[in-house]
């Protein structure tokens, strides 16, 4: 508990990943991208031929199977890269299908439970910046600083659109907006660890802020309470 953790929770495409990575780099802290873990489970399921449809996930035996898959993930992180069973999956992880699969498998309690220890183990000196949906509510409830990052759905869809187009990936704004709203709804309404601000979280709406302004906001809070 003496190792500091800064939690950055919030909906999809709110800029959590960018903010968390920037904070970790400036503070010299470790970084936990918890979404990557759920994306890895989605990807691993697909590769094993295990269904991730919502109907199948409601089957207790199938939920157990996915929980075992999550518990036995053969994953390795190297700077800037993620490896699943020895294969570089960095690109595949960021793609939309992995995100949608992640959003479905992350509603399975057995999957969430299987990933708890892995996340707790990321807490090393000098500190950790943890990015996700339930960092402040479930995984690190005692964290000294919790940020709940939001932006309007339209803003978030536009940002994601720009990001994809700049990478040469074709994208349709309306489709992105619809996917994003579907994912928000699923993340906020699930029974286990739903997306919501922790009671002691600081709300930060970055609709009108650039990255530097968001970074400064968090650093000011952090230094102010140290
Ligand atoms: O943040 P990212 O888009 O990579 O997360 C992918 C999905 O993983 C989210 O839509 C969410 O359903 C799930 N997730 C979660 N808990 C976390 C992080 C991500 O349920 N701590």
Automatic annotation (TrEMBL):
Positions contributing to ATP binding: 10-18
Sequence ranges assigned to domain Cytidylate kinase in this UniProt record: 6-221
Entry's localization field: Cytoplasm
Signal peptide from the UniProt entry: none
Subunit-structure text: Monomer.
Known role: Catalyzes the transfer of the enolpyruvyl moiety of phosphoenolpyruvate (PEP) to the 5-hydroxyl of shikimate-3-phosphate (S3P) to produce enolpyruvyl shikimate-3-phosphate and inorganic phosphate.
Family from the record: Belongs to the EPSP synthase family.
Protein name: Multifunctional fusion protein
Organism classification: Bacteria, Pseudomonadati, Pseudomonadota, Betaproteobacteria, Burkholderiales
